[in-house]
Design brief:
Layout lengths: L4 E4 L2 H8 L5 E6 L36 H11 L1 H4 L5 H13 L4 H19 E11 L4 H12 L4 E8 L14 E8 L10 E2 L3 H7 L2 E2 L5 E6 L1 E3 L7 E3 L2 E3 L5 E3 L3 H9 L3 E3 L5 E6 L6 E2 L3 E2 L20 H11 L5 E4 L6 H8 L3 E6 L2 H15 L2 E2 L1 E2 L5 H9 L4 H13 L2 E2 L14 E6 L5 E9 L5 H14 L3 E6 L5 H8 L3 E3 L6 E3 L1 E5 H6 L25 H6 L4 E2 L9
Helix pairs in contact: 1-5, 2-5, 4-5, 4-6, 5-6, 9-10, 12-13, 14-15
Length: 559
C-alpha cells in the first residue's frame, strides 16, 4: 500500500489485497444509504465476482441474491471466515437474518458489515472511523459498528444539518444526516474543534471593554469549596474569598495578571480575571453541526449528487488525525475527503467502483492542486481493457466510461445517468469562431466494428450539429472504416488557423501503447465542472506530502 493512491475497483477486494493491517489513521466513509433514491453507481463488482446485493445503474437499491447469501455465510460461519470475523458480528448478522429476513435491507447490512470488518483491520490502534449515513439504516449500522468495534468505543453520533428547511409530504422535513464516530481503542487521536460564537452570546457575555478597546468577560477568580490559607494579596491588600470558596489562582499568577492589567475590579472591589474575546478559540464543537451547509450552487458544487462540503471533511480530519497521517475513504465519490486530506497535509487512499467517479476525482484533484493522479487498477494494455469490457459484470458500461477518460470526454448526460442517445457516448467541447462553443461527439465500441459504425457517427454528428466526431475502438479499425473517416474531410479552426480531420478513429492500443491523443483545436473547455483552486494550510505540508503524480497533461493538440 502506498499512501496518496487512488484505486479503481470493489473496495472489499482492494482492502484485502492492498491495504495492510493497522496502516491507516482515519477512515471516513459515505456509503450508499439504502434509501431507494437515485444516486451514483457504487458496489458493482468489476473484479470478476458477480454481485446481487448491489446498486443498479444510479439507483440506491439493494437486492438479496446468491452473492448476498455467500456474504452472509462468510460472516456467520467460522468455516468460511476462519476466525477473522468477531463472534458478536456473527451473532448480530444471524439475528438480523431471523428478524428482518432476506430482504434489500439485509442485503445492504451484509455488504456493509463485511467491509466494516476489513476497515477495522486496517485501522491503527489509535485510529478512528466516521460512518456517514441517514435515518434509513443508521440504527442498524450502529448495532453493526457496536459489534465490530465494541460499544465502549462508540464516541459520538454527530447530527449534521445538511440543508435548510423544506416540505416533506405528511411528515416533518428531513434535513439531517448522522455521522457515527468510533475509535478502535481507548487511546485515540482527538483534537477539539471550535465554532464561531453566536453574536447574541458575545453581546451578553463579553459586554465589557478595557482601555485598549478589547472586549472581555469578567470571569470569577474563585472556585467552590474552602481551603486552608485562603487569603491572597490584591492591590497590596490581603483579601479573603467569599465563604465556601477558594481562590483559583496562586499568588505569583495573581501578581502577573495584576502587572499585565488582566484583573478587573467590580464596584465592591471584588477581583475578576479578564477573559478576552480575541484570545478565545471559539465555542467547542458539539455533536450537533448546524454551521456547515452544502450550497445548492457556487464554485464548490461539481454536479455530483452526493457531494459533501469540504468544511465538513476538514473538521473530521483535523479532529481525528495529525499532519502526515493516512486518511482512507473507501467510497470516494467525487473525492471531497481526498481534497480535504491533501489540503491539511495528510496522506490519503481513495477507492471507488465506477470510472465516472474516478474521472470526477482526477479532474478535481488536478484543478484543486495542479496534480494528475494515477489510477491503480485501470487497464494499462489492450488485454486488460478487453477483460474489463468482456469478462467483468457491467463491463461494457465501465469500459465506455474508462475509454472516455482516456480522451478527456464528458459522458453523455454528464455525471447523471447516461442517456440512450444512439451513437453518442461522450462529448468534448472546444472554442470555435467568435468564441462560440463547438462539440466533438465521441462514440466508444468494445465489440465488433465496421464501416457502418463510421456512417452512424457521421449521422449523429449531423443530427447534433457537431463540428467533429471521434470513434474509440477496442478492436483495430478496418480499411473501409478509415476510408469513411477520411471522406468526412477537415474542420478548420478559426482560433488556431489549422485544419483537423473531421472524423478521427483511435484504437485502445494507440491510446495506451503509443500515447496518441485526438487531434483537436486548442482551448478545449473543461470536461467536468472545474473545482476551486485549494491552497494547503502550510506550504511545507504541500511539499512534504505531495502526491505521486505525473505532470498535468497538455491540451489535446498533435501539432
Amino acid at each position: 500500500m502506498e499512501p496518496n493512491a487512488l484505486y479503481y475497483g470493489d473496495n472489499l477486494d482492494i482492502l484485502r489485497k492492498y491495504i495492510a493491517d493497522a496502516s491507516v489513521d482515519l477512515i471516513y466513509l459515505d456509503p450508499p444509504f439504502n434509501s431507494n433514491a437515485t444516486y451514483n453507481v457504487l458496489f458493482k463488482d468489476e473484479s470478476g465476482n458477480n454481485t446481487d446485493a448491489q446498486l443498479v445503474a444510479f439507483d440506491d437499491t439493494w437486492h438479496w441474491g446468491p452473492d448476498a447469501e455467500s456474504k452472509y455465510l462468510y460472516l456467520t460461519n467460522t468455516a468460511y471466515h476462519q476466525g477473522t470475523v468477531p463472534s458478536p458480528v456473527s451473532d448480530l448478522i444471524g439475528a438480523f437474518h431471523s428478524g428482518i429476513k432476506p430482504s434489500p435491507m439485509l442485503a445492504y447490512l451484509v455488504e456493509m458489515a463485511v467491509r466494516l470488518v476489513e476497515l477495522r483491520r486496517v485501522l491503527k490502534p489509535t485510529g478512528s472511523l466516521y460512518l456517514h449515513c441517514d435515518p434509513t439504516a443508521s440504527h442498524y449500522l450502529k448495532l453493526v459498528l457496536d459489534s465490530i468495534f465494541g460499544p465502549e468505543n462508540f464516541r459520538n453520533e454527530i447530527v449534521w444539518q445538511r440543508t435548510g428547511a423544506h416540505n416533506d409530504a405528511r411528515r416533518f422535513g428531513r434535513v439531517t444526516d448522522a455521522i457515527l464516530y468510533y475509535s478502535k481503542g481507548e487511546t485515540y487521536t482527538f483534537h477539539s474543534q471550535f465554532t464561531e460564537y453566536d453574536p447574541q452570546y458575545v453581546a451578553e457575555r463579553y459586554r465589557s471593554v478595557d482601555e485598549s478597546g478589547r472586549r472581555f468577560w469578567a470571569n470569577t477568580m474563585t472556585a467552590a469549596e474552602p481551603r486552608k490559607n485562603p487569603a491572597r494579596v490584591f492591590r497590596g491588600h490581603e483579601m479573603l474569598p467569599p465563604p465556601g470558596t477558594h481562590w483559583r489562582f496562586l499568588q505569583p499568577e495573581i501578581d502577573r495578571l495584576e502587572a499585565e492589567g488582566g484583573i478587573y475590579y467590580s464596584k465592591s472591589g471584588m477581583p475578576y480575571v479578564k477573559s478576552y474575546l480575541d484570545e478565545r478559540k471559539g465555542r467547542p464543537a458539539q455533536n450537533l453541526w448546524t454551521d456547515i451547509v452544502m450550497s445548492k450552487s457556487g464554485a464548490e458544487r461539481l454536479g455530483y449528487p452526493t457531494q459533501k462540503p469540504l468544511a465538513l471533511l476538514e473538521r473530521i480530519i483535523e479532529a481525528s488525525s495529525n499532519p502526515g497521517d493516512v486518511v482512507l475513504d473507501p467510497f470516494c465519490g467525487c473525492g471531497t475527503a481526498l481534497v480535504a486530506a491533501q489540503k491539511l497535509g495528510r496522506r490519503w487512499i481513495g477507492i471507488d467502483i465506477t470510472y465516472l467517479a474516478i474521472a470526477v476525482m482526477q479532474a478535481r484533484l488536478r484543478d484543486s492542486f495542479g496534480i494528475n493522479v494515477q489510477i491503480e487498477g485501470s487497464p494499462t494494455e489492450v488485454e486488460g481493457a478487453r477483460k474489463l469490457a468482456q469478462q467483468l459484470p457491467n463491463g461494457r458500461e465501465q469500459f465506455e466510461l474508462w475509454a472516455l477518460t482516456l480522451v478527456g470526454a464528458m459522458p453523455q448526460g454528464g455525471v447523471q445517468k447516461k442517456g440512450a442517445d444512439k451513437g453518442v457516448d461522450g462529448v468534448i467541447t472546444f472554442t470555435g469562431a467568435d468564441g462560440k462553443p463547438e462539440t466533438c461527439i465521441v462514440s466508444v465500441k468494445s465489440g465488433g466494428v465496421g464501416a457502418a459504425l463510421i456512417d452512424q457517427l457521421r449521422g449523429a454528428m449531423e443530427a447534433h450539429r457537431a463540428a467533429m466526431g471521434l470513434f474509440v475502438t477496442l478492436e483495430e479499425p478496418t480499411g473501409p472504416m478509415k476510408a469513411g473517416a477520411a471522406a468526412a474531410g477537415y474542420y478548420h479552426s478559426a482560433v488556431s488557423g489549422k485544419d483537423y480531420p473531421r472524423v478521427q478513429i483511435l484504437s485502445i492500443r494507440e491510446l495506451l501503447e503509443e500515447g496518441r491523443k485526438p487531434q483537436l483545436p486548442l482551448l478545449i473547455l473543461p470536461t467536468y465542472q472545474r473545482a476551486e483552486r485549494v491552497r494547503a494550510k502550510a506550504a511545507d505540508q504541500a511539499e512534504m506530502f505531495a502526491l505521486r503524480a505525473a505532470e498535468s497533461p497538455e491540451p489535446f493538440d498533435s501539432d
